[in-house]
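Model: Ready when you are.
Researcher: Fold this.
Model:
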Amino acid sequence: MGGLKVFAHGVNNHNHQLTKLGASRRFFIKTGLSACTLLALPAAYARKPKTSIKQPVKELSLLNLHTGERVKSIYWEKGRYIPSVLRDIEKILRDHRTGRTHAIDLRLLDILQLLSSRMGAKKEFQVVSGYRSPETNKMLALHNSGVAKQSLHMQGKAIDIRLPEFSLADLRKAALSLKVGGVGYYPDSNFIHLDTGHVRYW
């Protein structure tokens, strides 16, 4: 009987220790989670964007010489392109002969923005030619040997521009310094050609 009492006492003692252990584990888990929460808060606040810091933007100013229409808008902000502004730019760069619009290569817009920034331009780009429909391009190619039959203008990947506050030669030089896409120089017609094709110049 004495052995049984000792065994029973051992069981009770073991159960008491398990109870204490369970309580300790629950306490550890509870306090541990609280500590983790406290440690996580500063990191969470650190990731929160500060409204006082101005987000980088991309802006373009364009004037269509054929229609007199112009746009001056931020087309990229907070890491994304703005669809409504892109539609406005597509309208400005439409084929003025047919009225047809086409999606403009975003890389072309970025080249223009980078060129404007590189030159410190204060005025708008004057657009001689943006998108061209196949019909318009075919008509121009018949009268001008300098117009490519498979022009990138038909894909919204090319533009002919001038920037009156700078000489055409300086505009060309700045465009070449970007080392992106194609750059054509047409001093007799007073514009340079830019496109998003492979790097080349003429």
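Researcher: Now this one.
Model:
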Amino acid sequence: MDNKIEWLTRNVEMPAIDAGRLESWLGRVASAHGRIKGPLVYIFCNDEEIIDVNRRFLNHDYYTDIITFDYSRGRLVSGDMFISLDTVRSNAQSLGVNYDDELLRVIVHGLLHLCGINDKGPGERAIMERHEDEALAMLAGV
């Protein structure tokens, strides 16, 4: 099975990312969670696209930074992740953080969902943020 990552766009320009470095990093993050990185697809889009996906597939009527579709089996993590660059940018501004740093956080957030980490239940958001911080710290070593 191909464990490559595809980086696609819909109605936006590709963000400036180092795909090789990110692929290595995401593989290390998956491994740190006892998982094997399978095929991953990141689709960068705008707010109009993300709300359309949210409405069509999840029956949610709101904007979000990422929607993760999980195709994982056992330890092999696989999925499609839609990331709204518009929402990433507005979140970065409202949080007072660098856009590129926020984009990296959202990219790894999707993988962490595939590794079984949730963020909707009581106390889960803090757990997710801790895992995001740990993963981001790993990027320095890649």
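Researcher: Key takeaway?
Model: The chain has a mean pLDDT of 95.
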